[in-house]
Design goal:
It catalyses: Endonucleolytic cleavage at a junction such as a reciprocal single-stranded crossover between two homologous DNA duplexes (Holliday junction). Pfam families: RuvC. This protein is an alpha/beta fold. The chain contains five helices and five strands; from the N terminus they run βββαβαβααα. The chain has a single domain, classed as Nucleotidyltransferase, domain 5 (2-Layer Sandwich), CATH 3.30.420. A five-stranded mixed beta sheet has the order 3-2-1-4-5, sandwiched between helices. Strand 4, helix 2 and strand 5 form a beta-alpha-beta unit.
Length: 193
């Protein structure tokens, strides 16, 4: 499975592509950070991110895109910019019928370090080990994008099992309600005789 990991942001948007193998084997194919000037108009910054993401999607052809889920931070404008950048990425993937999954920062940290409260240095160190990189990916946005992609690779089988279980439960719920409705109709017809 080929996964594109995205650490969204207006000033720095981390992009990565990894490919999973057997078990927990993961290989990094590409990583970069898209930078936009903070003094540029918002629309131009989003366009620059969109152009880069579209190029990556067309070049790498991922099976799925994993994006960091935005949580509230102290700075509302930072949250808004991060959410807008993530939305641009999700839209570009949706236009290509590529599945998009969102992962929280704590899910990502727990997946790659075993600790949902790990700091950026711990995440970067583990990414370097997991991918057997010669040097630590910099800046942190690059490491975070790789961590998102790895997290999705490792969580995808569980997510697929959960989706299958939910689909089976919905099917069984439908069959049960249909059976109850048929029984109620039969009882009503019997009472009417």
């Amino acid at each position: 499975m080929r996964v594109m990991g995205v650490d969204p942001g207006l000033t720095r948007c981390g992009l990565s592509v990894v490919e999973s193998g057997r078990g927990r084997s993961v290989v990094a194919l590409d990583v970069d950070v898209v930078r936009t000037p903070s003094d540029a108009p918002l629309a131009q910054r989003l366009l620059a991110i969109s152009d880069a993401v579209e190029h990556w999607l067309d070049t790498h052809r991922p099976d799925v895109v994993a994006i960091e889920r935005v949580f509230s931070q102290h700075n509302v404008s930072t949250v808004m910019g991060t959410a807008q950048a993530g939305g641009v990425v999700a839209l570009a993937a949706a236009r290509r019928a590529i599945d998009v999954h969102f992962h929280t920062p704590s899910e990502v940290k727990a997946a790659v370090t075993g600790n949902g409260a790990a700091d950026k240095a711990q995440v970067t160190t583990m990414i370097t080990k997991i991918l057997a990189l010669q040097a630590k990916p910099t800046p942190a946005d690059a490491a975070d994008a790789l961590a998102l992609a790895i997290c999705h690779c490792w969580r995808a089988p569980m997510l697929a099992r959960m989706a299958a279980a939910e689909a089976l439960a919905a099917k069984q719920r439908h069959a049960y309600t249909t059976k109850l409705a048929a029984q109620a109709k039969g009882a009503k017809m019997k009472a009417a005789r």
